[in-house]
């Protein structure tokens, strides 16, 4: 792969030695949105857009990192107390800090980072960067950390060094991905199983609404509070429930007269999304992409109307995709208020889909949406240049 060979050459030019190269993928989530913090299920898959970390040891007790994308370098002593700074360096500082906090010893290293995950497209480039760097340190210094331990280290880094209170899905998916499969992750127990997503005649196509997630942070917290409010009311009758994961539609409907219409809508979406995800896994296990696509459309409608986290551009993209031949399903993906739609499109129709969706969007919004064509691939791994393809 050209990017890996470029990375190796750049590393040799910078540091004069041969590196280990680790690739960590971005992720998509096929169905199960805003279910993670309600202790439900999610269904992510790792994709063929990746962050890369090239690494080699050095005698000096220092970690030197060069970010190819920014053409910036940064050095620090891993033995010293590490504090957040500003910018991309926080991901490396945080991962180093939390690996040390786990009782592991890190020596000096030379590092080069690069990648081809589009930033801001909702494919979790930051989680992939943490995964790649943590995995690279684990390999170089034989630290013996498991993939799940590395996922938690990435999550803690986001919480403490970056200030984003994310769930575990992004890091989990980047580290545990498997080609031809998505992962049904139980956000309560962290148990997971691989679900086949083996449709070689289809691609996963993301279309960027070109709207930034300006409301996502504050509104995300409001949605959490609304879900918790619904749970607190239902819990007075059903004492054993702890989250919307434990609530079924009948329970919710019994309490409709006690819950404000807005909170009821929020809870209704989460409870029905839980069922959609389980039905979606069943459809995939039976190879029924048509049924899965209908569930994706229902998810979008719920996110737009009951959960109210969509926007005009996302609604347009999801609806317009339904009129294009070869599209099995389409919905907004991620926290909302911007970002991408995720579409499952027949491979032979991808070019037509791209042309039609861009043209229609351009006419209405006077901007060309970016389109990313992906497929489900393996999770974080060491790249062997001789066999990688």
Automatic annotation (TrEMBL):
Please name the PROSITE patterns in this protein's record: GALACTOKINASE, GHMP_KINASES_ATP
Tell me the domain of life.
Bacteria
Gene Ontology biological process terms in this record: galactose metabolic process
What GO cellular component term, any one, is given?
cytosol
Start and end residues of each GHMP kinase N-terminal domain: 90-178
Show where the GHMP kinase C-terminal domain sits.
283-348
UniProt-listed Enzyme Commission number(s): 2.7.1.6
Gene3D superfamilies from the xrefs?
Answer: 3.30.230.10, GHMP kinase, C-terminal domain
Domain named Galactokinase N-terminal is located at: 9-56
Provide the alphabetized UniProt keywords: ATP-binding, Carbohydrate metabolism, Cytoplasm, Galactose metabolism, Kinase, Magnesium, Metal-binding, Nucleotide-binding, Transferase
A family per Pfam: GHMP_kinases_N
Q: Which PANTHER family match?
A: GALACTOKINASE-RELATED, MEVALONATE KINASE/GALACTOKINASE
The entry's family comment says: Belongs to the GHMP kinase family. GalK subfamily.
What name has this protein been given in UniProt? Galactokinase
Lineage here is: Bacteria, Pseudomonadati, Bacteroidota, Chitinophagia, Chitinophagales
